[in-house]
Amino acid sequence: MRYRLLGRTGLRVSELFLGAMTWRAVTPEVRRMMDLYEEAGGNVVDTASAYGESESVVGELLEGRRDRFVVATKYTLTRDDRDLNAAGNHRKNLVLSLERSLRRLRTDYVDLLWAHIWDRHTPIEETMRALDDLVRAGKVLYVGMSDAPAWVVSRANTLAEWRGWTPFAGLQVPYSLLWRDVERELLPMAEESGLTVAAWRTLERGVLSGRYTAGPASDAPARVAPGTVTEREHAAARAVLDVAAELGVTPAQVAIAWTRARSRVVHPIVGASSPGQLADDLAAVDVTLPEDAVSRLTDAAPFTRGFPADFIDECAPVFGAAYDRLDGRP
């Protein structure tokens, strides 16, 4: 496992993040998965206040080794369906959610706190100032944004820069060969702004592992009904299976490697239902896809960025006949 810096900070984070969303109890299998991740050199564990018992499980598993890990959790989603103020990105929910998360995680600080989703009813100024207060108090070290439009993240970080607040260091979004919407605005924004991108659903709920397209079904519980898998999804899965066979690796490793090949800022979040599955996913860091394989995979699931990105590319000639010889910024 190699490491990169989290956004424009000095925090070292591993190539792959470990997703703890499905952890409900400290079982021997879950404990083994945490150990496997640590042995592989991984150091970021991602959970959330809304993931049931996940925070409590992570807290117990990290006893005695907490400081060696970057503990990432999220707030925003409701703590009480009957109370409007028990959800959202406003200061009250932030404070109460974080205090509960700290108790569950058995720690007095969180390394990385994500706002779980954009709350359209809370001014971004309030969110950024409230997050900064918690950083200054030492309860949070770094902050990030999950599931929000690019303009919201850009505006938030511009405000933080102007006012001396803590900016978002990372962005958490879904990204896979089959779900590439972030390539329109979010991924270019992250690259330009120096944000780390934590990518979830990189295997598209198992579809890109090939389990619904070829071979016997996996023993793991199905996350989608096999009959609902579309022809586009099957075509992408077949391309993944073909590349995996050529390289002598597994389809899951190819699907994860594809997201990493598309952008250096992407850190896939790997989650697994067994130690064996996690070990297989972790081995994706050793898979380097040839350029032609990346192109074949990309072409297998057609995607258009739409306006304005595609239009701007088409208009390149307006910058002059020699434009194609311009390398641009490094």
Automatic annotation (TrEMBL):
The keyword Oxidoreductase applies. SUPFAM superfamilies: NAD(P)-linked oxidoreductase (SSF51430). Keywords: Oxidoreductase. CDD domains: AKR_AKR9A_9B. InterPro entries: AKR (IPR020471), AKR_Detox_Biosynth (IPR050523), NAD(P)_OxRdtase_dom_sf (IPR036812), NADP_OxRdtase_dom (IPR023210). The keyword rRNA processing does not apply. Residues 16-299 form the NADP-dependent oxidoreductase domain. PANTHER family: NAD(P)-LINKED OXIDOREDUCTASE SUPERFAMILY PROTEIN, NADH-SPECIFIC METHYLGLYOXAL REDUCTASE-RELATED. This is Aldo/keto reductase. It comes from Nonomuraea corallina. The lineage of its organism: Bacteria, Bacillati, Actinomycetota, Actinomycetes, Streptosporangiales.
